[in-house]
Write a structure and sequence with these properties.
Strand content: 15-25%
Number of strands: 29
Helix content: 40-55%
Strand order of the largest sheet: 3-2-1-6-5-4
Number of helices: 32
Distance between the termini: 71 Å
Shape: elongated
Length: 959
């Protein structure tokens, strides 16, 4: 089944094609018509991404193109492309080769790169009519635009229609020019002139004959030659006509009667052309005066010349008529007229062809009705009746011609008399059978594409689940072991290695899923206020220990131009920077890793350099291709999926930026990310917590007092969750499937504060269990846990009633944060009471907020990392107390909550228990809008000042 969007796109394309064909018959200059056509084409949403385009016309010399019209094209580009030699650039190549030209890279498309043309590609289509090239349609589309079969077919039809419009307008201009030439000759003649039909009726006269005859022009038109002659001369008139028909011309002397009744002598020259039933062209020389008789020979010569030119014009008119009919045939668009008095139809040749009737066959309205498909006949007649009442007549229906069924589109306009009654109807009919067939084929293609996309999504979801489920157990058990082996350096190192390997595998899975979402067009880029400096520091913190372990030097430079805040997607920026940094560490054995951040004009620029192995030009050329690696041999030294840089490049493009790379073999590489700078207020940026410590250790039981029901069918995962939640003080009940969870709730609907529900379980899955549980206990929050990392899976969980979802492998900080967010009652109240008591008593803050002994023990094997962590905290948190007080003064509860949330993670990493309690209480008060929030925020600001001063004074003491 075709989607509504696809159907609308198809209708829009059909409408544009019909409008282009109708424009060929509209009044106006060729430039005006082409400009109208180009705007119609660029009105389509699929081509309006970058609404720029132009139409080039072939010059008379046939060696160059001239830009006739342009839409959205800069003045500089118009000047550069005003004249293009054939074969030059993609526009000239399209005309020279008569083939559509399309490229996806500016440097590959142009002989030279013009300023202002770096954001588009050319889609150049020759405008052909038979073997002749009339011009080129060029669309300036984004570099990332991907043409498809439907686009090619539609633009080919557009090009054919435009070619017909150009030829029709050129023929019309030539016809008008010839007609003006004809009239100038006739009216410039010194003799009288008139034209008659085969029965001798005057159809046209010149000014000289009007003056000589004394009649008004309106009186002469419609008179017969016999009305201007003496009585009884009818036989002589017939003889002259017969001689003219026999030899093509005739010359003789006669007399015509003036309006005053006076007869005046004339020398008459007659010629005949068999057009429109036959036409006689008559030149009348007044021979009343002797001086005119003396000029007879000169007049004869002039008549001969005029006769030749009239004959030539007649042939040209015939050629123009044929070209018009040919254009109708190419467009499958016919015209028709009906007289209301007798229902008689007048069809063009193309209309006869569409209906399979020999041209010239007499037809009436009833004959047309017989052609209409029986199932469509009632609808057509209803539309016809409505048109009589003033409604527009524009309808698509089927016609039956023998065994063949065609689709046609009809439009009509009614001509009314003075009383408003219809006199006649003029309309058009177009054969749209091919369009309908294309639509059917397109719908089938869309259905197949959707089916394949659904299969791909299901496969990715299943693979994500099958891999993440056991990985959740591995990482979870490693986190338990790391927490319980605190103080045992050997055991801790083993668990750290297990965690590192698990996270490496998780990174590979995330790369594959990100790449798949990008390919499917489902990856969403956010626009949030954030600190670019903090994003850099966060990425550096992740790789700091690896840099230190390899003995590499780290150089970080923040330019003064780097803004404190901007709009963008901080997560995706961090992902790209982390990828650049990870590659730099991976491929650098000794030397320096550098990171520079700043602003250049309207762009944010981040550059990561290294002194590693470097790359050759051919390696750089394929560096950003998916699944490609600089060293792809079977004995390669370095791991990885080959997706990281490809994903980074695509993410940069989705954010409106670009990536660049320079490299020298043996000397190192430099990767650069350039993103558009969008201004944001510095006060809008909430600080983010410092990086979570690898151990995941927390200095307090944050879930104390909460009763949590866990639904999980995998035994290892149940063990992980049980240990994780109990270590944070929660009371845990474990069940193996959704049915057991439902039964536990049915037995006592008030026994639990929150449910952690696995989505995919036997007997009854998590989503169905959630729906049934909420029917019993609608206020009980249910949090989903799933190994599916796709957006669609999370949406299904939300629709089932879950308040949020956690993606496996589970991280203790993510679990605690989600639980506190959705079941804050007891824990938040407990912390709020603690904080309120502190506020009332106003007890002095202890001199030492940080448990330095625990902090050092946790990082005993990695002192360099601890030094880096302390430095980041010292530099990034200096302005936080003032920011908290400003938010409290303006009663900005949302910012207070965000600031407190960030401080919670920071305090947990530094084992600052009292600071963590104060941040938790402040955040809970702000989230629920409590009156004590300003007082709690002031106390939080004071403790942060103490925390910052303690770091500054004590640094990283050695014990």
């Amino acid at each position: 089944m075709s989607t509504p969007i696809a159907l609308q796109q198809d209708r829009d394309r059909q409408t544009v094609l019909l409008q282009l064909l109708e424009d060929g018959f509209a009044e106006g200059s060729l430039a005006d018509i082409l400009d109208r056509c180009l705007h119609r084409i660029l009105s389509l949403p699929s081509l309006a991404i970058l609404p720029r385009g132009g139409v080039f016309l072939l010059e008379n010399d046939g060696s160059s193109l001239r830009l006739a019209v342009g839409v959205g094209v800069s003045a500089a580009t118009c000047k550069l492309c005003d004249r293009l030699p054939l074969g030059y650039c993609y526009c000239g190549r399209a005309a020279a080769t008569r083939q559509t030209q399309h490229g996806q890279c500016v440097d590959e498309r142009h002989d030279s790169v013009y300023p202002g043309m770096t954001d588009h590609g050319h889609y150049s289509i020759p405008l052909r009519l038979g073997d002749s090239v009339l011009g080129v349609l060029v669309l300036y589309l984004p570099v990332a635009y991907q043409p498809d079969v439907q686009s090619y077919e539609f633009l080919a039809a557009v090009a054919k229609a435009l070619a017909g419009v150009i030829r029709a307008k050129q023929d019309e201009a030539a016809l008008k020019e010839r007609e003006q030439l004809y009239r100038s000759f006739v009216n410039a003649a010194i003799d009288g002139f008139f034209m008659t039909d085969s029965e001798g009726r005057l159809l046209e006269v010149n000014d000289v004959y009007v003056r000589l005859s004394g009649y008004a022009r309106e009186e002469l038109l419609g008179m017969r030659i016999a009305d201007l002659k003496r009585a009884g001369e009818e036989e002589g008139i017939k003889a002259h006509f017969a001689e003219t028909l026999r030899q093509g011309w005739c010359r003789f002397e006669t007399e015509h009667r003036t309006r005053a009744g006076v007869y005046w002598p004339l020398e008459v020259s007659v010629s005949y052309l068999p057009m429109q039933g036959g036409r006689f062209f008559v030149f009348c020389r007044d021979i009343h005066f002797s001086d005119l008789r003396q000029a007879a020979e000169q007049l004869r010569e002039l008549n001969d010349t005029l006769e030749q030119r009239v004959e030539q014009r007649t042939h040209e008119l015939e050629a123009s008529r044929w070209q018009l009919e040919n254009t109708q045939r190419l467009a499958h668009l016919g015209s028709w007229r009906m007289n209301m008095g007798d229902d008689r139809l007048t069809w063009s040749d193309e209309t006869y062809r569409i209906f399979g009737v020999p041209p010239g066959t007499p037809l009436r309205l009833a004959d047309f009705v017989e052609f209409i498909h029986p199932l469509d006949r009632a609808g057509v007649m209803d539309a016809w009746a409505a048109a009589w009442l003033g409604q527009p007549y524009d309808i698509e229906h089927r016609i039956v011609i023998g065994e063949q069924i065609k689709w046609v589109r009809e439009k009509a306009d009614f001509q009314l008399d003075a009383a408003g009654q219809p006199l006649s109807v003029e309309g058009s009919v177009q054969d749209i059978t091919e369009i309908k067939q294309t639509q059917i084929a397109f719908q089938a293609t869309v259905a197949e594409t959707e089916r394949l996309a659904r299969i791909k999504s299901e496969f990715l979801a299943n693979m994500s689940h099958e891999i993440r489920t056991p990985l959740n157990g591995v990482i979870g058990m490693a986190q338990i072991g790391l927490r319980e082996s605190l103080g045992c350096a050997g055991s801790q190192e083993a668990f750290v290695r297990i965690l590192d390997s698990g996270k490496l595998l998780l990174g590979i899975i995330n790369d594959i899923l990100d790449f798949s979402k990008i390919e499917a067009g489902k990856l969403v880029i956010e626009s949030l206020p954030f600190s670019p400096r903090h994003s850099v520091e966060t990425a550096l913190a992740v790789v700091a220990d690896r840099i230190a372990d390899k003995g590499l030097a780290l150089s970080v430079a923040f330019a003064a131009s780097l803004p404190p805040a901007c709009m963008g997607d901080p997560n995706r920026l961090g992902q790209i920077l982390l990828n650049f940094l990870s590659n730099a560490v991976k491929f650098t054995a000794s030397g320096t890793i550098s990171l520079d951040a700043g602003r250049e004009g309207d762009a944010l620029v981040f550059a990561v350099g290294d002194t590693g192995i470097g790359m050759a030009p051919e390696q750089v050329a394929r560096l950003f291709a998916p699944f490609e690696q600089a060293d792809s041999s079977i004995t390669r030294q370095y791991g990885g999926t080959g997706l990281g840089l490809s994903i980074s490049q695509r993410l940069a493009e989705l954010m409106g930026g670009e990536t660049r790379v320079t490299s020298i073999p043996g000397s190192g590489s430099r990767f650069e990310l350039r993103l558009p700078y969008v201004e944001a207020a510095a006060t809008a940026v909430a600080p983010t917590a410092a990086p979570v410590l690898p151990s995941g250790q927390t200095p307090e039981q944050r879930l104390a007092g909460l009763r949590i029901l866990v639904g999980e069918d995998i035994e290892v995962n149940r063990l992980v969750l049980d240990s994780m939640l109990r270590s944070e003080g929660a009371a845990v009940t474990l069940v193996g499937n959704g049915q057991q969870a439902l039964t536990a709730i049915e037995q006592d609907r008030h026994a639990f504060d929150l449910v952690l529900m696995d989505v995919q379980m036997p007997v009854m899955d998590g989503r169905e269990a959630t729906r049934r549980i909420l029917a019993i206990a609608p206020d009980l929050p249910v949090i989903g846990q799933t190994a599916h990392a796709l957006v669609e899976e999370r949406q299904l969980c939300i629709e089932a009633g879950m308040v949020g979802t956690l993606t496996k492998p589970l991280d203790v900080e993510d679990v605690v944060a989600m639980v506190l967010q959705h079941a804050p009652g007891r824990a938040a109240a407990k912390n709020a009471r603690k904080a309120t008591a502190v506020t009332r008593v106003a007890a002095p803050v202890p001199a030492r907020l940080i448990d330095w002994e625990k902090l050092q023990a946790c990082h005993a094997s990695r002192p360099a990392f601890l030094d880096k962590l302390i430095g980041i905290a010292r530099d990034s948190q200096a302005a936080i107390p003032a920011t908290i007080r400003a938010a409290a003064a303006s009663a900005d509860l949302r910012q207070i909550y965000q600031l407190a949330h960030g401080i919670k993670g920071l305090a947990g990493n530094f084992f600052a228990r009292r600071l963590l309690e104060q941040a938790t209480a402040t955040g809970a008060a702000a989230q629920h809008g409590r009156a004590e929030t300003p007082a709690l925020a002031e106390e939080l600001a004071r403790q942060m000042e103490t925390f910052i001063e303690e770091i500054r004074q004590q640094g990283s003491p050695r014990v």
